[in-house]
Description:
The protein is an all-beta fold. 0% of the residues lie in helices and 53% in strands.
Amino acid sequence: VQLQASGGGLVQAGGSLRLSCTASGFVFSMYAMGWFRQGPGKEREWVTTITSGVGITYYEDSVKGRFTISRDTSKNRVDLQMNNLRPEDTGTYYCNYPPDYWGQGTQVTVSS
């Protein structure tokens, strides 16, 4: 299993970023996928999940209405569109194939 994440960067508060995670080594279409993040001095926390099949989505409360997770099974890719970013969104974002597989992390920094 490999998960390759990309798309992080530095953005001002209120800005947007789009993260992507390309998966290989398993039947991507059959499994839920998620994103987690770890802020400075904090534990890793769950952000969002998208199920297999019809793609039901779930979000942590602080990102509801601002973040959107989506998946493209033809490309084995899961994306995270992040809008109206806040400084507290700063952290390393990890793609997750539950429960135990993680991407390498991509850094998101939101300046105030």
